[in-house]
Amino acid sequence: MFDTALFEERLKNFTPEPLVPVEATPPSETQTVQEDATTIDLTKVNYLNFLNNDEIKKACEDVIREYGVGTCGPPVFYGTTDLHLKLEQSLSEFLQMGSNTALTYSYGLVAISSSIAAFCKEEDFIFADERANAAIEQGLITSRSTVVRFGHNDPNDLRKKAAKNGNKSKKYLIVEGISWTTGKVCRLPEFLEVAEEFHMRIFLDESHSLGVLGANGRGVIEHYNLDPNRVDMVIATFEGAVGSVGGFATGPDYTTIERLRLSSKGFLFSASLPSFLVKAVLKGIELIGDKPKRFAKLAQSVHEFLQECGFDVVSDPEAPFKLIRCESVDLEGQVHHYCRNKGVYFIHNESGLVLNLNIKLLEEPERLQRVFDVLKEASNVFL
């Protein structure tokens, strides 16, 4: 006979061991930055300031009132709305990939990793940058393909590696428009030459170049004035300049997207992107206008200023975030701490010091000057 009183007593006294030892978890240093007259946030990825755009917020609010905050499931199972179809059409047209050649995902990392895994199989060869981002790395793992690494953003090293593996039947090249880890702009024309010579399919991650590179913000393809048909698939997150969540894949050949629609697990088995976030992307694309040209001036001026201060600027002048290094990790920590105490917040990680730019700094020049003043003070003290 079940003894309820004994069960409740034992349950009350039950103290399970923690899954992770308490002493192994360091205290969190996470801090929410609230911008005000004296505080400037360069930690947030919000290049075109769309996260603070009232027009986008109002459009999202209207969609929530009509569609709610979620969808009924994956895109192929009651998860697709007219807004999803409109966004996919808008993306393919904006990136000049034809019509109906785009697919949206609810999570940016999965958009990239799942798109790679849908094409690349165990018997294939993938040529990947040695500094590839986490999303690409996950796609490489999931694909189980043989991965051949080449030097960071080095088409010459790719050519050497391709020559050694030139007889393989299926070969893929995966590059980033702007490297997530270094801020280097892809040498795409040279990579395309190698890919075409050795018959590779080329996948391009435009996550940090979309919206900021090219006169219209179409990314590195427009930046070099290249024919979009030379790239087999463009993949990206919406979490850079566009100011939303999720990601997408597109390409000049509709069969590429149809394959993803049938075999990309991140698309098939994940709930679709909520309609109000879809609307945020649609509105963002509509509002890009001349912002990429203006942002380019900001990126260039900040780059030049950092060099004048004596910082080692790893990222390229066109990059929307600035990666800078000091002589030592300790020195980087001191610069980071000094600037934070002065109200200028940015990121300090294993790569160095990362400053995410925001076009708002152009619209409020006194805040940009504040950033310059604090960084100059830090360079005078520590460099």
UniProtKB/TrEMBL annotation:
Q: Which UniProt keywords apply?
A: Acyltransferase, Lipid metabolism, Pyridoxal phosphate, Sphingolipid metabolism, Transferase
Can you give the residue ranges of the Aminotransferase class I/classII large domain? 40-351
Q: List the EC numbers from the record.
A: 2.3.1.50
Enumerate the Gene Ontology biological process terms: ceramide biosynthetic process; sphingosine biosynthetic process
Per the record, the similarity remark reads: Belongs to the class-II pyridoxal-phosphate-dependent aminotransferase family.
Q: What is this protein called?
A: Serine palmitoyltransferase 1
Identify the InterPro entries for this entry: Aminotransferase_I/II_large, AON_synthase_class-II, PyrdxlP-dep_Trfase, PyrdxlP-dep_Trfase_major, PyrdxlP-dep_Trfase_small
Q: Name one Pfam family in it.
A: Aminotran_1_2
For this UniProt entry, which segments traverse the membrane?
A: none
State any single GO MF term: serine C-palmitoyltransferase activity
Keyword Oxidoreductase part of the UniProt annotation: no
Names of required cofactors:
pyridoxal 5'-phosphate
**NADP listed as a keyword:** no
A GO cellular component annotation here is: membrane
Q: In which pathway does it act?
A: Lipid metabolism; sphingolipid metabolism; Sphingolipid metabolism
Which source organism?
Zophobas morio
